[in-house]
Design goal:
alpha+beta, 6-stranded mixed beta sheet, 2 helices
């Protein structure tokens, strides 16, 4: 990649690439999510791992500024199969809201599920429906030089 257009700065180059990615998504009616899973999470005063934030990845401020949806995945400890998803940024707001979701992992089926209470008051596992929506894109249309004369690469 030629970073000379960005003055050799990583943050400016990343901002250019993310802007370009956002334009491609809008042109093709797609939505991209950025998921952060920190490799070296900080610990709190009790020694528990803190949830990562979008700022924990290299160029975090730029990712947060230019990203549409920022999600961080957190496993509070390595013994439970609980995964917390922190929805840090959702844009546009009409598609969702910020907050936390909990998922669990079924080692036998190798699928994630949420725990729910059925009508009988029993705790049940609810897995994702597989065929709710299938993306049917033949080719993602990139931006042309006419669309954007300041392409990052």
């Amino acid at each position: 990649h030629d970073m000379s257009q960005s003055g050799g700065r990583d943050d400016k180059y990343l901002a250019d690439c993310l802007s370009y990615r956002n334009e491609i998504a809008e042109k093709n009616n797609l939505h991209f999510h950025t998921i952060v899973h920190s490799l070296k999470p900080e610990k709190d005063k009790d020694g528990n791992r803190k949830p990562p934030t979008p700022y924990d990845q290299r160029g975090g401020q730029t990712w947060f500024d230019e990203g549409k949806c920022m999600v961080t995945a957190h496993r509070p400890n390595g013994k439970e199969n609980l995964v917390e998803l922190y929805w840090n940024k959702i844009k546009p707001r009409s598609i969702g809201s910020t907050g936390v979701s909990e998922l669990f992992f079924d080692k036998i089926t190798r699928n994630y599920y949420v725990q729910d209470v059925n009508e009988a008051g029993e705790l049940v596992r609810r897995f994702a429906e597989k065929d709710i929506y299938k993306l049917n894109i033949q080719k993602i249309e990139e931006l042309s030089e006419e669309d954007n004369d300041d392409l990052p690469f």
